[in-house]
User: Fold this.
Amino acid sequence: MNPFVRRSHLLVPVLDCAAVADSWRHNADAVILDLSSAHPRADCAAAREMLPESIRAAGKGGAEVFALIDPATIHADIASATLGIAGVVCPIRVGADVDVVASALSEMERDCGIPHGELRIIALLDSAVGVWNIREIVRSSPRVCSVGIDELRLCADMGIVPNIEFDPFEYAKGRVIIEARAAHVQPVGMSHPYGVLPRFDDDADIYRLALRSKNLGFAGAICPHPSWVSHCNRAFAPDEDKLEFYRETRRLFAEGIARGTAAVPYPGTTMMIDVPVDENARVALELWELCAEREAQKAEALAEAVQ
Assistant:
């Protein structure tokens, strides 16, 4: 899978026409159109009918568009999707669940003339079983690009009452991050308490918790409200103020290696640049380039959309 940037995944109910119509304006890297919350059955049918136009509307600003589907109605949900969709978001408990979703996506690719393997899966873990099987899930198909915890549903599954004072899922998040990173899958999540008790009115706190999420190892977050998008885009990208430091670090270390030195001092500090420090700088610079490219793509799409 080619490297990608999805720092912000804006969640939008398909049946909320105003939110869908406005979704492309928020500069999200991805928009997730939620089909799973449509109930009763009449609403489900209406949501599926609205999905093709919703995909077109949500993608106008350059966001990748995903559909959040219900495993119980996967074939009907996927059948209602059209060209322009990047993949699906789906609750997953075991690797066999991924196989079912992947098979349905293969059918869609064949029917729509989409290259095989192009459609992706973002796996949501909403049960203790899903967290337990995380290694199996992230390694079950190359279509699995991202994985995250649905904390509210996991609370319900485990009989936990959400509490702002402590995070009951520290272990679960840590395991998801490690297993996902080891499998080259992007872990997505928001730091406690916003993962289970989100707020949308404190810009500083949203950014602080998103930055903490990045430092925990997450690569992005699902945003239940547009107020999160810009903060996640900024928090999950390398700090622009450190770019020159990273470039200088790489230059100095390369010069040291050429001289046969395994570690070199960074001028004006007590820090020594060795392989781990240089590698961190390399990763940060590569991510920054990917983020800059992603922003340019969205800016181009936005300019075309407003003409």
Observations:
- The chain has a mean pLDDT of 95.
- The chain is about 50% helix and 15% strand.
